[in-house]
Amino acid sequence: MAQRRGGGKPRKITQTVKESIITGMSQGRMLIDLCEEYKLSRQGVWEARRADPAFDELFDQAACNGITVSLENARKDLASATKRDDVLKYKELLRHAEWMAEKRLAIYQPAQRAEITHNGPMVVGWKTIEGTAETIFSGDQADVRARMLPHNQQPENVAAP
Questions:
Q1: Whether the predicted pLDDT of 127 surpasses 90
Q2: Backbone Cα Rg of the chain
């Protein structure tokens, strides 16, 4: 006899578990720790997010709130650290929290550079100046006569003429 549709193993990610994950994430807990606590795989959480758009949206918001909480906690822990090892540890945790914030939160992302647009043809090139070193510079550009180095005194990083 064929199994009825919807039968089989019950889902591990129930609505209660989803709410617990969202609460934990918003408190700054890591998803991997929550998965261990509820005996879930991260893949299962991602599949639940894909299947439930409301859960996905709440998960994203909770993750962003959690990053902010982690950042605040890391700053607080660093400020209260007294031992050298604790200072180094909390400094690294703060750097990690800042990195996460920069990746996920728009207010921590670096400013984008403005894009320059150009209409019309663009010509890239150079002009060759004809003449000798003494006559290239006019009086309004240089007050002294141009000086030439003999070939044997050329600096190593300057190409010979």
A1: no
A2: 32
Segments forming the whole domain that contains residue 84: 15-108
Q: What is the CATH number of the domain that holds 91?
A: 1.10.10.60
- Alpha carbons 113 and 98: distance in angstroms, whole number: 21
Which residue, among 133, 154, 128, has the nearest Cα to 144 in the 3D structure?
A: 133
Q: For residue 106, what pLDDT is reported?
A: 77
Please name which of 52, 26, 23 lies closest in space to residue 38, comparing C-alpha atoms: 23
CA 95 to chain centre: 12
Report yes or no on 23 lying in a domain.
Answer: yes
**Three-class SS of residue 29?**
coil
Total of domains in the chain: 1
| Cβ 59 vs Cβ 44: under 8 Å | no
Residue 84 CA neighbour count, 13 Å, CB half: 0
- 2 pLDDT above the threshold of 90: no
Instruction: Please name the residues in contact with 110: beta carbons below 8 A apart, sequence gap of 6 or more.
Output: 102
| Residue 67 forms part of a structural domain | yes
Within a domain: residue 123? no
Does residue 48 contact residue 85 with C-beta atoms inside 8 Å? no
How confident is the model at residue 84, as a pLDDT? Answer: 94
